[in-house]
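Hi V.,

Quick status before I head out on leave. The structure for the redesign project is tokenized and pasted below; the design run finished overnight.
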């Protein structure tokens, strides 16, 4: 058996094992924000958002847009972290997340992240979106040869799967699952209201329009 696929299979088994044996009380446990990994925004921001997301998930795309608009309106108020959580039911989720991890390793994750979500309806119906992801990476300023080499590197896929294991330990099953200052939200419907409720008083302006 190909070693690459054997390792992938073992890691997927580990995800399932971690999910089964994680104590259910974590559903009510606040999650501490870590500034390591795919993070952007003000390190001193009062609002910390950690999102476990799937690149092919429409609700995740909407949540990403809400978060981005909020950050544009209130750049000092929020810091955001992205965590890989590809779902098995999405045909291209695996390669999308490997590509995202490569963009992170090559220094321009967030530009790639935005392109993938903004164009989700286009690439998600393709037979194979790999070349499209290569183009997004190039448009984000990532060298094509480096990106293509990373897509074939088992370490990139391993990083995605290990991050999903961490999500499984938190009993994450749906995307997006978002922790706002440690409080869990499942789905993006309540995200805008939650972010606005946490704005410092000096950031709130009379008559201000919602970010969405």
């Amino acid at each position: 058996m190909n070693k690459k696929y054997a390792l992938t299979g073992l890691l997927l088994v580990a995800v399932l094992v971690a999910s089964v044996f994680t104590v259910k009380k974590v559903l009510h446990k606040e999650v501490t924000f870590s500034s390591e990994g795919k993070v952007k925004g003000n390190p001193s921001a009062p609002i910390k958002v950690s999102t476990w997301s799937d690149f092919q998930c429409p609700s995740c795309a909407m949540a990403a847009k809400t978060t981005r608009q909020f950050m544009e309106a209130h750049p000092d108020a929020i810091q955001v972290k992205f965590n890989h959580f590809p779902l098995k039911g999405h045909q291209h989720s695996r390669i999308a997340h490997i590509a995202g991890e490569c963009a992170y390793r090559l220094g321009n994750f967030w530009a790639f992240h935005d392109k993938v979500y903004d164009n989700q309806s286009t690439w998600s119906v393709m037979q194979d979106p790999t070349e499209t992801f290569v183009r997004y990476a190039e448009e984000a300023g990532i060298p094509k040869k480096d990106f293509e080499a990373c897509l074939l590197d088992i370490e990139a896929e391993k990083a995605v799967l290990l991050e999903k294991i961490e999500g499984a330990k938190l009993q994450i099953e749906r995307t997006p699952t978002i922790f706002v200052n440690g409080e869990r939200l499942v789905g993006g419907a309540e995200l805008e209201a939650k972010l606005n409720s946490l704005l410092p008083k000096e950031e709130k302006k009379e008559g201000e329009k919602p970010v969405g």
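Above is the designed sequence. Confidence is low (pLDDT under 50) at residues 15-28.

G. will cover questions while I'm gone.

Best,
W.
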